[in-house]
Specification:
Elements (H helix, E strand, L loop, with lengths): L1 H18 L4 H22 L20 H17 L6 H29 L1 H9 L20 H7 L2 H17 L2
Helix pairs in contact: 2-3, 2-6, 2-7, 3-4, 3-7
Amino acid sequence: MNKLKTLGLLVCIIIAVIMARPTALSLIIGSIIVFFGEAIRIWATGHLVRNQEVTTSGPYAYLRDPLYLGRLFLVIGFCIMAWGYSLLLLPLGLVVFVLTYMPRKKRKEMIRLEHKFGEEYKTYASYCRSLLPRLKPYHRSSQRPWMFKLFWKENREQYFILMVVSIFIAIIFRY
């Protein structure tokens, strides 16, 4: 099933790039949003310690799902960059993200994290919203600094960055 989802995503990306009709303004605005989305992901992956703790440092002090927020910004940014008919994919992408992707992830992840970390995770989840950051950090947040080792080895964000850069370049070549 995961391979089918990955194939579907890849087909959508290829179609979006083929349909792209970027303008100078769409490239500028979309690039800023893409940069912001990937910056959030880089910040998050330098803090995320999977399956060992309830991560509460960095962006996790303000929201539960910074990687998903970053991905949402990437979808929006790439659709704006591509402009033309690709912009028609934005409502579809948002519907898929909000109505299928997030509920499925939330259901699977929250249950797993509540089971693994119990009350600690429930307390954290009751304070930190999923995609809308709070202005004040979680009161029990960790002060651990961003760590390259987590970014590179544990979370392997470099592969995701490679994909983002590839899509970015493909859309620019459509200009």
